[in-house]
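TA notes. Do not distribute before section.
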Amino acid sequence: MKIFTIVLAAVLLATSADASSHLKIHSKTVSEHHVEERVVNQEALAKKQDMYYRMAHMKSTPWDSQPEERAAKCEDLCLLNNFWEFQQVRNCVNRPTSLCSIYKSGLASMDVVLTVAECTCDNSTSASSE
């Protein structure tokens, strides 16, 4: 019986020593993984910040700082919008043609452009459709 307890104690001691070394190696691996993950996160953050600054620079246009340039561009966009409205009325209301869908989508696109450019067109020269 003494031999059995000695063998059992030796096996338990060997198993506990093996488990602690395994835990140490595992914790070391996990911390390396976290460091690697942190480096990747920093790189991703740097990329996002760089993209943000590039987009902010690309979005700045001369009309952000020059009101007369902005007024001229808005006038041009309003003239183009009036053309699309006229063509939509001409091709959809007065004399329906196959071009109706093209001018409807073109006018919808012009609405988006005017909204993004923050232009307001007061003097519409054509009647609205529908």
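Switch to the second chain here.
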Amino acid sequence: MIRLLSHVRRFTTRDRSSMRRPFAEAMDSTAHAQQHEQQNGLAASIGHTAKVMANKGVKDDAKWMALIEDAKASLASLTPLDIALLVNALTRERRADAPLYSALGNRICNIISFFSAPHLAMIISAYAKANLMDDELYKNLKAEINRRLYEFTSPTELCMILNALARCKETDEGLLSRLANHIKHHIRNFIPQELALVAGRYHALRVYDRQLFDAIEGKAGDSPNDAFHRKGKKHIGRFDPNEAITILAAYAHFDKNNKDIQNVIKVHIKEEHAYLRGEAFVRMVEDSNLSAQQKQELLAFEDETDQHPQN
């Protein structure tokens, strides 16, 4: 009996292939969508076709326009999977079509409960990046995501949602606080690039969650109690200069008295600076959200390089 139950559990476990990164490779994880794929020949192929074209970097305008027209003609039969893959691909390729996105937005609102968590993340991200999010769609997406927040477990999904909320200049501190707590719960799965995004987006929103930023510091260091101290540099060497600057800007703004993390990040940036061309580093610093004083301090690294050129 125990062996039988283990086999049942094995085959009923959620398909984690939908959590792969990059998110463009996400696959549908719901039986509902799979059933529709089998029943709808043309409609079910539109999302997959769009994903394949985007992944292959297709530049043929005629092919993209034909795909968009097919989507408009098949609107009523497009599945949640198709819609998510379609808008994700079109936005990635900078081919978002306003009339199509508007029509899809209405359909999304009507069947929003049928979208899986990964699909909701893809959709809110795609619409926000394309700058085609209308108030009604945003309200529905935000409400559905808030209601089903526990379903979002992939760092990619959570980053897509947070990035979209930041682009839409979200002000609901209750939602942002819940999201911060949820991210903190899953922080062990975040890679440096995602940690930087989280810190940067909350910085942009001017929302400070102390526990979340402590968790980021702990993840970037060795442990929550030894972050950035002694041997606490587990991940600091994995941040690229731009990510490190983003992290520094957030901590310098929210946690000015935490000099330990700031100093360690500055040392890391100085080390990484040696591998960058001068103008690239200057542009990176100038485009950051650092204060004028912090920018001046980092740009001094460039002056030191000029005075002591490498042999």
